[in-house]
Write a structure and sequence with these properties.
alpha/beta; six-stranded mixed sheet; seven-stranded mixed sheet; about 15% helix; binds zinc ion
Length: about 210
């Protein structure tokens, strides 16, 4: 079920290998950050229903990167635009199963990404603004979405509550990961919302050191 983080910002913390999903209800867009996988289909539909939302009400899905554990449920959101960093998006639009690690999730359907995100691009959901921080390392096109007003970082598989993402998958790069973590550490977060596992909120000076 969704946990309310702030008015109009909710977290669905996955209990299986599918990714966490975050819901941001702006005045212009009803957006998800990542969609999770088929294994969370019923739970996510029920979570949305608890807020009087249907999957068709989602207008935008923002992807932290192009791995199948984050986009497997994409097909549910039939009215949504999809956004991802241009590098990962190119692989996903080609249906590159090895890039997406799709063999862990047989039957994965690949989304068509229409919005190719650039580093530092601002996304205005209406009263909620996100900045795209390009943080290569886990994949070349990994992005963290930063909500600057409250200091919330939606970090995908770049940083978790404990530790950081693996760098041995296609386009992964340990040197770039170290640089990305350094860049993030300078930003000063009040909340960390990763792609897997628990989130952190209300702690000063969250330590992102590897
Ligand atoms: Zn990943
Ligand atoms: Zn993941």
């Amino acid at each position: 079920m969704f946990q309310k983080i702030f008015p109009n910002i909710y977290a669905f913390v996955s209990e299986n290998s599918g990714s966490n999903v975050f819901l941001l209800i702006g005045e212009k867009e009803t957006a998800l950050i990542d969609s999770g996988t088929e294994g969370n289909k019923q739970a996510l539909i029920e979570s949305l229903a608890s807020l009087d939302l249907k999957p068709e009400d989602i207008s935008l899905v923002l992807y932290t990167h192009g791995h199948a554990d984050h986009f497997g449920l994409d097909f549910l959101f039939t009215n949504a635009k999809r956004a991802m960093h241009k590098f990962d998006a190119e692989q996903i639009n080609l249906g590159n199963a090895s890039f997406a690690c799709a063999s862990f999730f047989p039957g994965t359907k690949f989304p068509k990404i229409s919005i190719l995100l650039e580093p530092n691009q601002e996304i205005d959901l209406g009263k909620i603004k996100l900045k795209c921080l390009h943080t290569p390392g886990h994949t070349e096109g990994s992005i963290c979405f930063f909500e600057q007003e409250k200091g919330l970082l939606f970090s995908g598989d770049t940083v978790f509550a404990e530790g950081f993402g693996r760098t041995d998958l296609p386009s992964g790069n340990a040197t770039k990961m170290a640089e990305s973590l350094k860049k993030l550490q300078k930003m000063g977060f009040k909340g960390l919302f990763p792609g897997h596992g628990p989130f952190l909120l209300g702690q000063e000076n969250i330590d992102l050191a590897p």
